[in-house]
Amino acid sequence: MHFRGAFGNRPFVAVDCGSLVPTLIESELFGYEKGAFTGALKSKQGLFQAADGGTIFLDEVGELPLELQAKLLRVLQEKEVRPVGSNQRMKVDVRVIAATNRDLEAAYKNGTFRKDLYFRLNVVTLYVPALRERRSDTPMLVHWFLERYAPGSELHVTSAAMKALMQYDW
Prior knowledge:
Layout: E1 12-16, H1 25-30, H2 47-50, E2 55-59, H3 66-78, E3 80-81, E4 90-91, E5 95-99, H4 104-109, H5 115-121, H6 138-149, H7 159-167
Parallel strand pairs: 1-2, 2-5
Antiparallel strand pairs: 3-4
């Protein structure tokens, strides 16, 4: 989406929200000032600042704690971030793409995801079924990954290997 669109030559930052350490998520996303916490020996820009002018991809956004969801909502509404330890807000112009495996509608109904953030993110929803539900895509994906990660190589996938990949329950 990013590289094929109008933002293709601008920054793209991918964030795996599910793998970020809860105590560090805020400083990773929004940056921090020198001395903001133990070990903050110099200021550091956050991932939103790194994506300024481009796109930030928030993978597994449903894993963010409620407190961070409120801060993310503020960034989306006000288009500015406040680094940890700073009194200054910094403008950011980013396109946000979010993904999750969770049912966020059910999550906001049971109180584990903010309803207002759900509706702010849920502008355009693309449902991509699991590969096991679209096995005919497997050969195209295999060839794409070979070209992407082994360009110009003589690697080939045997018909038996392709059959095994297509039968795998992804």
